[in-house]
Amino acid sequence: MKKILITGGAGYIASHTNIELLKDNYELVLLDNFSNSSMESVNRVEELSGKKVRFYQADLLNSDQLNHVFEQEKNIDAVIHFAALKSVGESVEKPLDYYENNISGSLNLYRAMQKYQVKNIVFSSSATVYGDPDEIPVKEDAPTRCTNPYGHTKLMMEQILLDSAKAYDWNVVILRYFNPAGAHESGRIGEDPEYPANLLPFVSQVAAGVREKVMVFGNDWETHDGTGVRDYIHVVDLAQAHVKSIEKLKNSSGSFIYNIGTGRGYSVLEMISAFSQACGHDVPYEIGPRREGDIGEVMGDPQKSAQELKWTAQYGLKDMVDSAWKWQSENPQGYRSSTQENT
Ligand code: NAD
Ligand code: WQD
Question: What is the predicted ipTM?
Answer without folding.
Answer: 0.99
